[in-house]
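Exam revision sheet. Question 4 asks you to relate a sequence to its structure. Input first:
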Amino acid sequence: MSTITQIPLAATASQTLNVVLNQQLVRLDVYQRSTGLYMNVWLNDVQVVAGAICQNLNPVVHADYLGLGGDFVFVDTQGSDDPTYDGLGGRYVLTFALM
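Answer key, structure tokens:
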């Protein structure tokens, strides 16, 4: 059974936020480029994912061995498009599923 947490994002082209997930400090850098939306993931001040493309319903991390205990998934609440910054926090929702 997994627990799903929604991560609050703003509709801005570049943002960094800190959240506690699975009792660990996680920093997320979310940024828009001409080729799509990307994310860096930091776990306890160590970068574990760099430049991951953010796609609808596609896990961002893809690696259990990194120690997150789960994965991030963007969800298009109005269809099946990949996320863009202007829809963050509204149409596009970032979730973390604890496994």
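Marking note for examiners. The mean pLDDT is 94.
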